[in-house]
Amino acid sequence: MGVGYQISTVIVLVSVLAGGCTCQDLTPVSDTAVVGSATPGPVSERSASAPSSAAAPTAGSARRAERSTTAFGGRTRPAAPSAAGGAASLVLGPLGRPVAVLAFPGADASRARTSPRISAGRLTRTLDRFLGRYGGRVTAAAHDLTTGRSYRYRPGLQLPTASTSKIGILMALLLRTRWQDLSRPVRQDAEQMIRLSDNGAADRLYRRIGLQAGLAGANRRFGLTRTFTPAGRCLDLHCWGITRTTAEDQVRLVRALAVAASPLADEDRRQVLRLMEKVTPDQKWGISAGACEGDRVALKNGWLRHVSNGRWVTASTGLIRGHGHDYAIAIIAEDSANMAVGVAKVEGTAERILNAFRGRRGCVAGGH
What are the beta bridge partners of residue 327? Predict the structure, then answer.
């Protein structure tokens, strides 16, 4: 069963011999859910009751730098409204090269030539109109691993990962210990963390990989350059949920699950994808909105709510495979009025980006 928490994040500078650390105070909440209401309510993996006030910083704290309330996870799918909010930028191929230049090992040159070209301006304007209905900030990145085509919306914008960072925690763990060598309790934590978005399981595995230092080291191995987790030993280990990242970095991460030239062994990559393909049904929202019927979708979603302004972050990252193409895609939306609006932004963005990749024929014959 997933574990729901409401997190009162108190980031403080602590005077200790080893230097400052970032700390959090976490308050458990009830194991029920009210998600996506017109007035934002506290939502975690399954929670609806309000948190108690944050605990006071420990005696060693010098000052409070920031305070926000955050809810991680995703146990219930909200009813998404019909619209979503942004500004954008497009890149075709790696580093802006023409579409015929292949970005990924194993990309198919013939498919690159026959796949639809993406109109940078048209797709950007389409997303601006759609997302402008809501306001807030959205960043997205998508790569067709089959042809090398790529797209970035608001490149470089760093937003919180929420529970999507659990993918990185598991991948970091597998860099240290192969899946086949993990103990049964650790495997169970991995299953709970990915499939149910269990925060307690994530805490245990985050500790096992060495907290921020372990996650940062793994991120470097996977080529992530704009992803940062608060340093130090958090009181309740939820620093992983306020990691800031770019959509491009998240695409690099999930790409490492799909290509042979990966720091992870083949069997370990398959295990991560297996878990991402089997997330609990009420967590299958997100980038899956851009999939065609019959596609295989491996994803991890997350959300958080800031107490300072009551606004929401929703994120969805993963792979969509089928109809002759493998797509790696990541979308993060911040400053949404409620979770349902955030989900609408993510899903509407996924639909429009993948429609552009597939062209007029859509899901028929891979869109070409």
Answer: 144, 320
Q: Which residues contact 292 (CB under 8 A, 6 or more apart)?
A: 322, 323, 358, 362, 363
Opening angle at CA 240, ends 68 and 73, nearest 5: 75
- Contact between 153 and 86 under an 8 Å Cβ cutoff? The reply is yes
* Residue 363 phi, psi dihedral angles, 5° rounding: -80, -5
- Rounded mean pLDDT of 68-93? 38
Q: What is the dihedral of CA 2, 226, 9, 35, to 10 degrees?
A: -40
How far apart CA 247 and CA 315 sit, in angstroms, is: 10
Task: State how far the Cα of 74 lies from the Cα of 70, in Å rounded to an integer.
Answer: 13
**Residue 18 burial (CB < 10 Å; 0-12/13-18/19+)?**
exposed
Q: What is the mean pLDDT of residues 338-346?
A: 97
Distance CA 336, CA 138 (A): 10
Distances (CA, A) of 102 to 152, 189, 320, 341: 16, 38, 19, 36
pTM for the structure as a whole:
0.74
Measured in degrees and rounded to the nearest 5, phi and psi for residue 54 equal -65, 145
Contact 276, 194 (CB under 8 A): yes
Give the pLDDT confidence of 347-368 residue by residue, as tens digits. Answer: 999 999 999 999 988 887 544 4
Structure tokens at 111: 């498919």
Could you tell me how many helices (H) and strands (E) the chain has, helices first? Answer: 9, 10
Percent of the chain with pLDDT over 70: 66
Work out the angle at residue 303's Cα, subtended by the Cα atoms of residues 301 and 308, and round it to the nearest 5 degrees. 165
Q: Distance between CA atoms of 367 and 159, rounded to whole angstroms?
A: 32
Do the Cβ atoms of 235 and 244 come closer than 8 Å?
no
Q: Where in the chain does DSSP place strands (E)?
A: 5-14, 25-28, 61-71, 137-144, 150-153, 159-160, 244-245, 296-305, 312-322, 325-336
